[in-house]
Amino acid sequence: MADNGDDDNQYRIKEGDYVVLKRGEIFKAVQIQPRKKVIFEKQWIFLDNAVGQLYSTTFEILSGGNLKPHELKDTASPLDAVEAGTDNRNIVDDGKSQKLTRDDIEALKEKGLKGQDIIKKLVDNHATFGDKTEYSQVKYIKKKKKKYENTVMILKPSCRILAMMYHGREPGKICHLRYDTLAQMLTLANIHAGSKVLVFETCAGLVLGSIMERMGGYGSVIQMYPGGGPVRAGVENFGFPAHFHDTLHEFPICHVNALLAGTLDTSAKDPTAEEQGSPEEESMVTNTGDDAGQDVEKTEKDKLKEAKVCPTSNGERLPYHMNAMDIITAKRLLELINFLHAHVPLIECFKKLKECGGTVNLRLTDTWLRHYQVLPDRTHPLLLMSGGGGYLLSGTTVATDHSKPAGSKQAEEPAPKRQKLEDTEG
Amino acid sequence: MSFVEYSDLIQDGDVAIIYLSHNNVMPVKVQQGAQTQTRYGVIRHSTDLIGQRYGSKVTCSKGWFHVLHPTPELWTVALPHRTQILYTTDIAFITMMLELRPGSIVCESGTGSGSLSHAILRTIAPTGHLHTVEFHQQRAEKVAEEFKEHRVDHLVTVRNQDVCKDGFGVTGVADAVFLDIPSPWDAVGHAKVAMKKHGGRLCSFSPCIEQVQKTCEALQDQGFEDISTTEVLLREYDVRTVSLPLPDFGPDPESTEEATPAAPPNHASISLKTTTLPREMPGHTGYLTFATKPRT
Question: What InterPro entries would the database entry show (chain A) (predicted)?
Fold first, then answer.
């Protein structure tokens, strides 16, 4: 059955929406706010005119910074009626082929000439354009389009778009986590609606948001965080509906030792839990007194209480990810994923996990990603590819020999951890 | 047990995963009174499995192993192959690039052995739906049977038809379409019809570059945007302790009293925990071509 037109409403841009601006391969996450100037690719834009339009609309940026939906005019391509050469044996690259100067082009831009027309002017004023091969001409136009087009597309955010954006724009903020590695993490950890996930990440909230997207508002996510408060800026960019945030809880890692020692007062631990008073939170409070042999703890806190802590080899404080590994060695079936941009520390983790026992299918992997240009007679991999997207340590915990029956079955997953290294920005 | 929801205890009728080792994973249909042979001995379902917790260790006459709750990832490694399948590395990338999430409506062809299908079902549950098309009758029947055993049949519709001729059997409902067939360019038009009017994502998986070229051309002709082709490969590292011999350059001429002549070249080697690379790695599975259907 075809969908009916009146549910268009959910595909329309509204004020306050979190969106992603796109031009070519460049993305930027912004919020639609009235009369707010937004800078994108060296241009100031007002997004007011986008409100009420459909997502994935392409807009032209007018000279005042306002947006106008872009109409695809079927104007003649700059390549019509231009002859082409056969090869470049007679083309000399002396830098003098283009008659228009930079100032000329700026003047044309000031006059308000559209991108397409500027390109036509460039082609007309190019002395040897007609000598180029057809493929070379197409390549030239494509390059100029990238430089002079004045459009922006407004997209609905998604894990894919945001992961690509962060990786392209600010990889340092996400520990250089490449988007395909994030994809591996989400799948290997079996994140799905109804999961209970334990997350520890320093990727500005991108990993957390991606997990929440895959859970669709079902289940729960507990974010463990260092320091004063959890960082969740990245989560906002996803533009989740309000009820998704009901599934999100937090727990400061400075209380982990106390929790494991049984000295933590959990009744007032999670303020959000108190407010909600959902059955899940209630079970958290009531189970506080249970001893480790009890079944059916539904929350991570109780899970932590049961966790078998594997003491560090010489008692010294190891970087975050290693201490975190102590915590999650719990007596239940859960998928473990540990991401780091460097692989040597993960070797330590691997070693520790093997020593502690209770895990199967431990693997240290990374993925290799390569893009292709696919054109008739011009298909080949791109010239530049990603040097690396980080490493993953993954595995599954199982019952250990001397364990009592494990607790609740929910799969939990600790998200990427990283060393407190100098290359943390800010 | 179901492939989209965890449960604690193994029950009669479940499909459990016997984990013998990394390369040795087998599915077991749990049945009261049944027995299963393994290299470590016999598993007696009634005593060894039913009523035990998932994640438990089972000991047999010649060894032991763990019983795991099924997940799509374990299923991919354990399932009986009827066709070449997609592995987790590609599946994970496809899942993210198609923007799958709970509630997504997905069309897929060919179903094959159901490796990707199970992963899709896990991601789109509990509110989504998978329309999967398989032109081979026995394979279609077998996979439908498995969906039922795995308690995910309410989330999926299997159609035994040729997607290139008859399409997916639905119109204007899909958020995402996945193609893994010999001639995907013939299915692009049908994919467009199956997808929602407001748009969606498409992926085509092909081992050969010629197929990719034809598919990209068809996508372009049908008005798809953001057409991009990628490949992703998994690299696994072997973590092991390596012993490296240290060279003996002879006694140190500098040292006088400290170094006794009897100082044994004891530490003639050092031991490191490090990674080594495997001899071979998967070098190609297929090219993944993604595209976006704009609003039509």
Answer: TRM6
**Which class is A159-263+324-397 in CATH?**
alpha beta
pLDDT at A259: 74
**How far is Cα A190 from Cα A397, in angstroms, rounded to an integer?**
13
Q: What is the pLDDT of residue B263?
A: 52
How far is Cα A304 from Cα A61, in angstroms, rounded to an integer? 53
Q: Where in chain A is the domain with CATH 3.40.50.150?
A: 159-263+324-397
In this complex, the residue of A54, A160, A183 whose CB is nearest that of residue B92 is A183
Residues B87 and B228 in one domain: yes
Q: What is the pLDDT of residue A81?
A: 65
- Which residue bears the tokens 């003649």? A76
Residues pairing with B204 in the sheet = B179, B289
SS3 A177: coil
Percent pLDDT > 90 in chain A is 32
Asked if residues A325 and A318 have their Cβ atoms less than 8 Å apart, the reply is no
- Whole-angstrom distance, CA of residue B67 vs CA of residue B60: 12
Query: Is B289 within the bounds of a domain?
Result: yes
**Single-letter residue type at A383:** L
The answer to whether the beta carbons of residues B217 and B185 sit under 8 Å apart is yes
Split into its structural domains, chain B has a count of: 2
pLDDT digits (tens, 9 = 90+) for A37-79: 999 998 899 999 999 999 999 999 988 888 888 877 655 566 6
Question: Which residues lie below 8 Å from residue B247, measured CB to CB, with a gap of 6+?
Answer: none
Which positions 42-71 of B are in contact with A (Cβ < 8 Å)?
53-57, 66, 68-69, 71
**Residue A418: partners with Cβ closer than 8 Å, 6 or more residues away:** A175, A202, A320, A321, A339, A340, A341
pLDDT at residue A256, as a whole number? 76
Are B236 and A216 within 8 A, CB to CB? no
**A394, A318 in Cβ contact below 8 A?**
no
CB contact at 8 A, A339 and A185: yes
Give the residue numbers spanning the domain of B63: 9-70
Q: Please give, rounded to a whole number of angstroms, the shortest distance from the CA of A265 to a CA of chain B.
A: 29
Residues B189 and A401: their CA atoms lie apart, in Å, by 56
Is the predicted pLDDT of residue B43 greater than 90, yes or no? Answer: yes
CB contact under 8 A, B96 and A160: yes
Tens of pLDDT, residue by residue over B150-184, are 999 999 999 999 999 999 999 999 999 999 999 99
Find the CB nearest A214 among B101, B170, B231: B101
Distance separating alpha carbons of residues A6 and B204, to the nearest angstrom? 31
Nearest CA in chain A to B19: A360
Q: What is the CATH number of the domain that holds B198?
A: 3.40.50.150
Tell me which H or E stretch contains A394: strand A391-397
This prediction's pTM: 0.86
Most confident of A266-270, A393-397, B262-266: A393-397
- Looking at the structure, tell me whether residues B106 and B56 fall in a common domain: no
